[in-house]
Write a structure and sequence with these properties.
By secondary structure, this protein is an alpha+beta fold. It is built from three helices and seven strands; from the N terminus they run αααβββββββ.
Length: 152
């Protein structure tokens, strides 16, 4: 019956009653933002390689008429569309990258994590992968994925 609440329908069918609290909803959103952040970083890293393939490899392969380039160019087109979709999703969730590659900063455990955990203790670090933060409306930014660093 579409007029019944989820809890009543679950009770009538003998299924576990789904419980939702403000804390569980917030926890789920944090996990979702983290996954989107990881997707942003993966898309950013892969895009660099895709651009290299597009500008360096495809022109060289075009010399050989026997190589089918259509599949590779179509793959790159679809990949770039996927990257754009990930970025639009990040924009909807107000997620932004922070940290400039190869820049040197003071280590902060709130925003940095070591690429190699045995490097813990370095005061100055070099960013090897940016981090992701969320900028909620009327709240201060919150780190979702820490920037990866190495000792400087």
């Amino acid at each position: 019956n579409p007029g019944l609440s989820r809890e009543t329908a679950a009770w009538l069918t003998g299924q576990p009653i789904p419980k939702s609290t403000a804390l569980s909803s917030e926890s789920q959103m944090v996990r979702i933002e983290s996954v989107i952040g990881e997707a942003m970083l993966a898309a950013m890293e892969a895009t660099e390689y895709a651009k290299s393939v597009e500008t360096d490899l495809i022109p060289q392969m075009a010399i050989f008429q026997s190589l089918p380039l259509l599949q590779l160019t179509e793959f790159l087109t679809r990949f770039f569309k996927t990257g754009d979709a990930v970025q639009r999703l990040a924009d909807l969730r107000r997620l932004d990258l922070f940290g400039v590659l190869d820049s040197i900063e003071e280590f902060s455990p709130l925003t940095h994590e070591f690429a190699n955990p045995s490097d813990l203790g370095a005061k100055r670090v070099r960013i090897v992968r940016p981090g992701v933060l969320v900028r909620p409306e009327n709240e201060s930014p919150r780190v979702v994925v820490k920037a990866q660093v190495t000792p400087a």
